[in-house]
């Protein structure tokens, strides 16, 4: 009798729990948020592609097509910088530093200054605007900020206390949906976003990646970002690519990262006395320089660089100095302060560097480009596991797993020797400082009234 009573009591309790709306409400909101990230990521990708196509059509036909970038890029950069400063503050740049910074902040209002649905909307619109104007930027980093913003809104609407874990989940889901690389999304969340393993958040991250990935899969279908590659070292000189691309790509990545942090700080100091006017002026100058580089490179440095990187992975050699031109265009686009990421341009720079090395050594262009991508990307973000996993998933080159892994680690070690501060984490401190200053200013104004 007591056993029967206990069983009936447990049954009634389980029915109450499973039938409780208050229990299911946060779960449903979280699932909806994860699916929304997948849908928004696919829509974002479509708009970005349309913007690049529109820019290409404007600059490829007509007698004045040669001069269009000289007008369109500076004006577009200036408009983007103005709108970001006035309407969407903290939407500038990649978006990954903002997501990292938000995870370090403990005040919900402070997090809202970096991640919000309004900022997510502005991030998408202004990134698309930048691509329409020929900026050397990507959409993948911005997708991380968009994913984090959606998940922070989920935390608020669902009354969930796990804001840091949800931001992590949204960031991972954003990377997974943007590249169709679910494993890379998870590794990125662990290695780059959190810099440590959080056992309590792994279930949330995994669920978000699965749901956003399913949504993206349903809309865009199953695909590999760069198609399917099947190349591996076959000769001694092919293995020499691992060392040369690793050291060279890592050094290039460290230079980009170090210069971005150093000159970014100098630009911010110069802009500070007149933030709006000077920020717009810097954007205009950078836009003009990007246009000049694009014209000099016959248009290859405009946009994300996806077509160039894909061609290199397929074995088509890129111009010898394409990687230098693309690196310069990407650096200037980042320095301008307009919203836009460095993920895709970094892959193009790495592919160009690898292509040049492969051409010089007479080895496989496809293999050299893949190794160059992994090394340079690992050097920029100083996250070798993310670089290795994301390159393998994007190229499908499982025959070169060991070389890609090795070149990612060599690139990382080389970058750490030359530049001790990871790019995204160095930039995240800038946004933390901005939020703290904004809060203190608001408190002073409130106390004065």
Give a verbal description of the structure.
The protein is mostly helical and 449 residues long. It has 2 domains: 27-220, Orthogonal Bundle (Clc chloride channel); 236-432, Clc chloride channel, CATH 1.10.3080. Helices cover 76% and strands 0% of the residues. The longest helix is centred in the first third of the chain and has 38 residues, at 21-58. It starts with a helix and ends with a helix. The mean pLDDT is 86.
Q: Topology of this protein?
A:
Elements: H1 2-18, H2 21-58, H3 68-86, H4 96-104, H5 108-112, H6 117-132, H7 140-157, H8 163-179, H9 182-193, H10 202-220, H11 236-271, H12 275-296, H13 306-313, H14 322-335, H15 343-361, H16 365-381, H17 384-395, H18 401-418, H19 423-448
Give a brief description.
The chain has 449 residues and is mostly helical. It is 76% helix and 0% strand.
Total DSSP helices: 19
Query: Stretches where pLDDT falls below 50 for ≥5 residues?
Result: none
Which CATH class of the largest domain is shown?
A: Mainly Alpha
CATH topology of the largest domain, by name, is: Clc chloride channel
Task: Please estimate the helix content.
Answer: over 70%
Please provide the ordered H/E string of secondary-structure elements.
HHHHHHHHHHHHHHHHHHH
Report the C-alpha radius of gyration, rounded: 23 Å
Shape: globular
At CATH level 2, the architecture of the largest domain is Orthogonal Bundle
Q: Main β-sheet, in a few words? A: none
Could you state the CATH homologous superfamily of the largest domain?
Clc chloride channel
Strand content: under 5%
Question: What distance lies between the first and last C-alpha atoms, to the nearest angstrom?
Answer: 69 Å
Number of domains: 2
Number of strands: 0
- SS class: mainly alpha
Mean pLDDT: 86
């Amino acid at each position: 009798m007591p056993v029967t009573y206990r069983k009936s009591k447990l049954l009634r309790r389980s029915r109450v729990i499973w039938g409780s709306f208050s229990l299911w409400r946060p779960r449903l909101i979280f699932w909806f948020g994860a699916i929304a990230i997948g849908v928004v990521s696919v829509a974002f990708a479509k708009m970005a592609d349309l913007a690049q196509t529109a820019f290409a059509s404007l600059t490829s036909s007509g007698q004045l097509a040669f001069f269009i970038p000289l007008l369109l890029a500076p004006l577009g950069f200036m408009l983007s910088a103005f709108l970001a400063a006035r309407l969407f503050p903290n939407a500038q740049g990649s978006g990954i530093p903002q997501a990292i910074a938000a995870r370090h902040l403990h005040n919900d209002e402070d997090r809202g200054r970096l991640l919000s649905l309004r900022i997510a909307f502005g991030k998408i619109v202004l990134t698309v605007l930048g691509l329409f104007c020929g900026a050397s930027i990507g959409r993948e980093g911005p997708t991380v900020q968009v994913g984090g913003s959606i998940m922070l809104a989920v935390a608020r609407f669902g009354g969930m206390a796990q804001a840091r874990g949800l931001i992590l989940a949204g960031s991972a889901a954003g990377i997974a949906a943007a590249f169709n690389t679910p494993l890379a999304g998870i590794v990125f969340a662990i290695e780059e976003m959190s810099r440590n393993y959080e056992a309590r958040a792994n279930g949330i991250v995994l669920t978000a990646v699965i749901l956003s990935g399913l949504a993206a899969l349903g809309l865009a279908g199953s695909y590999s970002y760069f198609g399917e590659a099947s190349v591996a070292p076959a000769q001694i000189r092919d293995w020499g690519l691992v060392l040369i691309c690793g050291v060279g790509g890592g050094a290039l990545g460290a230079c980009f990262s170090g210069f971005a942090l150093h000159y970014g700080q100098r630009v911010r100091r110069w802009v500070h006395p007149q933030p709006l006017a000077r920020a717009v002026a810097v954007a205009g100058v950078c836009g003009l320089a990007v246009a000049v580089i694009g014209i000099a490179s016959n248009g290859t440095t405009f946009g994300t660089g996806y077509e160039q990187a894909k061609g290199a992975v397929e074995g088509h050699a890129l111009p010898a100095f394409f990687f230098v031109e693309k690196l310069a265009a990407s650096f200037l686009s980042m320095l301008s302060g307009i919203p836009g990421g460095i993920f895709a341009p970094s892959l193009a720079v790495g592919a160009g560097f690898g292509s040049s090395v492969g051409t010089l050594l007479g080895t496989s262009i496809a293999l050299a480009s893949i190794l160059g991508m992994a090394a340079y990307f690992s050097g920029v973000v100083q996250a070798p596991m993310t670089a290795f996993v994301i390159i393998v998933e994007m190229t499908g080159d499982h025959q070169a797993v060991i070389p890609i892994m090795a070149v990612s680690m060599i690139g990382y070690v080389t970058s750490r020797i030359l530049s001790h501060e990871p790019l995204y984490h160095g930039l995240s401190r800038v946004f933390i400082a901005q939020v703290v200053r904004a809060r203190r200013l608001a408190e002073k104004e409130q106390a004065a009234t």
